[in-house]
Amino acid sequence: MITHYQQYEIEVIDDEGYVLNSTDNKNHYQNVIHDPADVYQPSAKHGIRVKEHEVEISSVVIYASGGITRINARSPLIKDDIIFICCTNSVYALQVPSLDLIWKNNLDLATCFCIYEFDGDLLIHGETQISRIAFNGDIKWTFSGRDIFLTLDEKPPIEFSDNKIILRDFLGYEYHLDADGRLINDNYTQVN
Predict the structure, then answer these.
(1) Does 64 lie in the same domain as 85?
(2) What InterPro entries does this protein map onto (predicted)?
(3) How many domains does the chain have?
(4) What residues does 161 pair with on adjacent strands?
(5) Are both 11 and 95 inside the same structural domain?
(6) Are 84 and 101 members of one domain?
(7) Contacts of 88 (CB under 8 A, 6+ apart)
(8) Based on C-alpha coordinates, what's the Rg of the chain?
(9) d(C-alpha 30, C-alpha 71), whole Å
(10) Are residues 41 and 83 in the same domain?
(11) How far apart are CA 183 and CA 64, in angstroms?
């Protein structure tokens, strides 16, 4: 996925073939973000490159274990010279254009899928919870439902309407939250 931000071209990819410390990698990066205490086989390897006038000025691969993530249109978000990106069960904030790590925050027990701008903050759609965080990574609130926030029908698991958040879970429950993460109401609809 390629995004244009200011004078930069930013490419974000799933680099499944990347192996830590291997000289045989197809793609090479200037930096690697990897927790040395993480002894498990990585489930996500997200490569990021920043180019200016077609010249690469920085690159990094995030090498992490946890819930499996794949790059999608909503897994990275660029705002105020920071790229926020979901990788496994965490969100990483990297400075643009250097790609230096600003912060990393574990925001779900399983997997973080998407990042949305919401009322001056970020809303993180995780598998087991929804989190509202400030741009500095501070958690304002989290919300969990009866089951994971994925749906079997064509309704999206998360929507926004009139400063409300509408969530749907795997069992067919729909939750309406206010901007402060308080439950306004919930109901059950039969899942086909």
Answers:
(1) yes
(2) Quinoprotein_ADH-like_sf (IPR011047)
(3) 2
(4) 164
(5) yes
(6) yes
(7) 43, 44, 64, 65, 66, 67, 68, 69, 111, 112
(8) 17
(9) 20
(10) yes
(11) 33
Sheet containing strand 164-168, edge to edge, reads 158-161, 164-168, 173-177, 183-188
- Indicate the length of the chain as a whole number: 192
For strands 130-133 and 139-143, give the pairing. antiparallel
Mark whether 66 and 150 lie in a shared domain: no
End-to-end C-alpha distance for the chain, whole angstroms: 33
Q: What is the pLDDT of residues 15-60, one digit of tens each?
A: 999 988 889 999 999 999 998 777 677 889 999 999 999 999 999 9
Q: Are residues 125 and 170 in the same domain?
A: no
14's tokens: 């799933």
Angle subtended at Cα 183 by Cα 186 and Cα 78, rounded to the nearest 5 degrees: 110
Q: Is the pTM of this model over 0.90?
A: yes
Phi (first) and psi of residue 182, to 5 degrees: -85, 140
What is the domain range of residue 63?
2-140
Instruction: Give the model's pLDDT for residue 40.
Output: 73
The first and second tokens of residue 54, run together, are 């077609």
- Reply yes or no on whether the pLDDT at 182 is more than 70: yes
Tokens of 113: 């899928």
